[in-house]
């Protein structure tokens, strides 16, 4: 019998051909296996029918752990047998099927780690030790099929030792495209801040020593550069904050081991599972009471972003030092993508760092670390990138057409929706300039090529001035694709709906800003969405509040606080007393008061973020937003230790949840109740108010589920109280599990509206 088998999924770069080779030989079959240019695998088998049956069983039951099989097509071939044995054939460039993709980068496996530590192994102490089960993939592949010449390993010629392993079917590195050793592979080296080589026979461990002594280093990793520093010395952190213009934004850290993490942070079993998984994301962990790292690492927050080493290089950094952790933050100049090339790094980071730890292998595609937070036992993506992208999210049904979603503006991603799979790109960042626009365009184009997709429509935001909207319009025109514009919060709810396969949903969406269907600034919304309509119904929202001074009101929460409070009392004295918290002091306070009196050119917002900001200012927790979400994050950090002392009853007028009276109540109790309790009470008010409105509307409309999405859904207190209220009412509560909760999930939401909703 002769058959041809085509397999789609994640089947290149995961040791799939070696696996096929082994099960074919074990079952006494002849023929070949080869990679295809469409990221799929093609197999010809010759042998008796029973052996082929056994092969197909083994294929499903014994597949390599990182492989994902989406589809297996078996066709019987006619004619006589042609093959005497089974071989791995040269890859073909043919592109027939769509929807296969290469794997994400994979953390170093335990076998490679053991070899790294074995003095008798030829790869002992080698910073770039990898195998078929681990190493960079997404960031190393320039084009398909996944062969060495199509990766940035093409310039390194295998030595005879590596070659011997590469062709040995019994070896773990049989056909491992990233195979390398100290003799033939990439080399690491240290340079000064101006790029002069520093001679050292152990540059990686020397880099660890320099960090431990207080130096700042730029370190080249799998998907880009990190900036690293001590976590216990204040001096380098002060210097780093100054150079990066990051006064307060928390730095992620890399810890030497799980035990080390437990010395400064609480780790639940779910968090432990994530930290040690082969995706190795940054996990936000609660600081322990005995937390003794520098307060400059994550100032004013109850939690800290921690990851464990995911490359041999990371492990080696800690070998000769006692430090439990180092700062390891993405190296990206303000509003720019993460730096990936050596030249670019020297140019952009030379003024920030003392040394560079470089290597001579190029990075094909940039990819930031992923960030997750765990609520109870449920992980919630703050950023879905390294270790996850470009693996698809599998949906329960097939989309009507192939749609490219380009996302919104902040924390952006792109998404390709193809049949029942959604491929979300790595983290792109804030698309506010030419560099990030180029990165978005490149990432989207790369996804289209990798998945061999034939895009039919492009989806984007409603905002007429977003760079992403303009890009979508250009692409639609140029390629003849349909253009679909999706309101920001509608995209958030649609994402929840398709993630959980529900046809109708009442969605609570809380975030900072989304362009409303009426052109207004929305951000505390309750929407009714169904798949029967490309439109949605705005059921309710937070009370609109004036934004005095536009963007200034977002940057300086005192403006928000004064504006809201001025509806209830004369804020003049209070504002003048607190004018020290404004950048221009009393002068500015007077201008604000004047603006309040005249209300000139004031736009309004229903943003949940702005209300939380105002509470943070009234409580003296945060007066300036130096990074996105800062006041609200610090408010949550305070509230986490508090309780609902005020027990404010939600004031609902029509379909509007009052926020003025709430802020006033907090204001009146300053000094009378504990700050943490007031912070908690504000959260409880908003969560109970929004949830009770959502429950009422859902019951009225006969809808069984309520969802919670948007950046503020990463807030544990809000999410937990809304869950309680919804479940107490006997309704199902939905949150994101596989899709980013904040704006990283918007591209997916846009794409699903275009691919699943009725027009
Ligand atoms: Zn390995
Ligand atoms: Zn070698
Ligand atoms: Fe949003």
Separation of termini?
49 Å
Main sheet properties? 11 strands, mixed
How many distinct beta strands?
A: 31
Q: What hetero molecules are bound to the protein chains? A: zinc ion, fe (iii) ion
Class by SSE composition: alpha/beta
Low-confidence runs? none
Strand order of the largest sheet: 7-6-14-8-9-13-10-12-11-15-16
* Strand coverage percent: 15-25%
On the 0 to 100 scale, the average pLDDT is: 96
From the alpha carbons, calculate the radius of gyration and give it in angstroms.
Answer: 27 Å
Structure described in brief:
With 759 residues, this protein is of the alpha/beta class. It contains 23 helices and 31 strands. The strands form five sheets. An eleven-stranded mixed sheet has the order 7-6-14-8-9-13-10-12-11-15-16, with helices on both faces. A seven-stranded mixed sheet has the order 28-29-25-24-23-30-31, with helices on both faces.
């Amino acid at each position: 019998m002769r058959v041809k088998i085509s397999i789609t999924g994640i089947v290149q770069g995961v040791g799939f051909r070696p696996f096929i080779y082994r099960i074919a030989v074990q079952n006494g079959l002849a023929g070949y296996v080869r990679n295809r240019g469409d990221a799929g695998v093609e197999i010809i088998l010759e042998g008796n029918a029973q052996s082929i049956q056994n092969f197909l069983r083994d294929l499903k039951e014994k597949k390599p752990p990182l492989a994902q099989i989406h589809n297996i097509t078996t066709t019987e071939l006619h004619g006589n047998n042609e093959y005497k044995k089974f071989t791995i054939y040269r890859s073909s460039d043919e592109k027939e099927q769509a929807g296969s993709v290469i794997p994400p980068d994979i953390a170093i496996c335990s076998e490679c780690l053991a070899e790294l530590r074995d003095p008798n192994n030829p790869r002992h102490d080698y910073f770039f030790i990898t195998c078929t089960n681990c190493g960079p993939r997404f960031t190393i592949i320039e084009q398909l099929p996944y062969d060495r010449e199509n990766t940035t390993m093409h310039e390194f010629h295998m030595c005879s030792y590596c070659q011997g392993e590469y062709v040995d079917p019994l070896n773990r590195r049989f056909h491992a495209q990233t195979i390398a050793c100290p003799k033939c592979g990439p080399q690491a080296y240290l340079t000064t801040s101006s790029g002069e080589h520093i001679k050292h026979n152990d540059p990686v461990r020397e880099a660890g020593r320099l960090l431990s002594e207080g130096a700042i280093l730029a370190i080249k990793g799998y998907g880009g550069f990190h900036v690293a520093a001590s976590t216990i010395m204040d001096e380098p952190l002060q210097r780093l904050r100054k150079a990066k213009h990051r006064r307060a934004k928390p730095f992620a850290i890399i810890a030497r081991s799980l035990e080390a993490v437990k010395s400064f942070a609480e780790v639940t079993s779910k968090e432990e599972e994530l930290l040690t998984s082969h995706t190795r994301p940054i996990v936000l962990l609660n600081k322990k009471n005995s937390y003794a790292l520098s307060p400059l690492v994550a100032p004013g927050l109850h939690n800290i972003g921690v990851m464990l080493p995911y490359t041999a290089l990371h492990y080696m950094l800690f070998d000769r030092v006692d430090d439990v952790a180092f700062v390891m933050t993405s190296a990206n100049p303000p509003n720019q993508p993460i730096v990936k090339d050596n030249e670019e790094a020297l140019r952009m980071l030379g003024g920030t760092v003392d040394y560079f730890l470089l290597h001579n292998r190029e990075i094909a595609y940039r990819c930031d670390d992923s960030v997750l937070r765990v609520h109870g036992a449920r992980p919630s993506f703050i950023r879905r990138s390294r270790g996850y992208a470009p693996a698809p999210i599998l949906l329960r049904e097939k989309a009507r057409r192939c749609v490219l979603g380009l996302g919104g503006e902040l924390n952006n991603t792109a998404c390709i929706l193809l049949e029942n799979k959604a491929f979300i790109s790595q983290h792109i960042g804030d698309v506010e300039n030419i560099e990030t626009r180029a990165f978005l365009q490149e990432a989207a184009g790369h996804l289209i090529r990798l998945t061999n997709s034939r895009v039919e429509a492009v989806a984007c935001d409603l905002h007429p001035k977003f760079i992403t909207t303009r890009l979508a319009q250009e692409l639609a025109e140029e390629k003849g694709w349909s253009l679909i514009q999706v309101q920001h919060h509608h995209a958030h709810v649609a994402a929840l709906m398709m993630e959980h396969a529900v046809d109708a949903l009442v969605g609570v969406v809380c975030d900072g800003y989304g362009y409303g269907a009426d052109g207004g600034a929305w951000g505390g919304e309750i929407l009714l969405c169904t798949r029967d309509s490309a439109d949605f119904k705005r059921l309710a929202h937070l009370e609109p509040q004036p934004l005095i001074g536009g963007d200034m009101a977002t940057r300086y929460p005192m403006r928000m606080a004064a504006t809201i409070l001025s509806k209830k009392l004369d804020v003049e004295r209070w504002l003048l007393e607190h004018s020290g918290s404004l950048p221009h002091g009393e002068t500015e306070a007077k201008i604000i008061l004047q603006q309040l009196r005249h209300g000139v050119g004031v736009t309004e917002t229903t943003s949940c973020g702005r209300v939380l900001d105002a509470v943070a200012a009234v409580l003296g927790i945060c007066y300036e937003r130096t990074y996105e979400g800062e006041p609200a994050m610090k408010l949550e950090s305070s509230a986490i230790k508090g309780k609902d002392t005020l027990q404010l009853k939600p004031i609902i007028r029509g379909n509007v949840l009052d926020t003025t009276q709430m802020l006033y109540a907090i204001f009146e109790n300053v000094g009378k109740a504990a700050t943490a309790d007031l912070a908690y009470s504000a959260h409880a008010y908003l969560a109970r108010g929004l949830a009770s409105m959502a429950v009422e509307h859902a019951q009225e409309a006969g809808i069984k589920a309520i969802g919670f999405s948007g950046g503020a859904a990463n807030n544990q207190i809000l999410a937990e109280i809304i869950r309680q209220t919804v479940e107490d009412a006997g309704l199902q509560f939905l949150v994101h599990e596989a899709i980013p909760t904040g704006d990283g999930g918007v591209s997916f939401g846009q794409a699903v509206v275009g691919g699943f909703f009725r027009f």
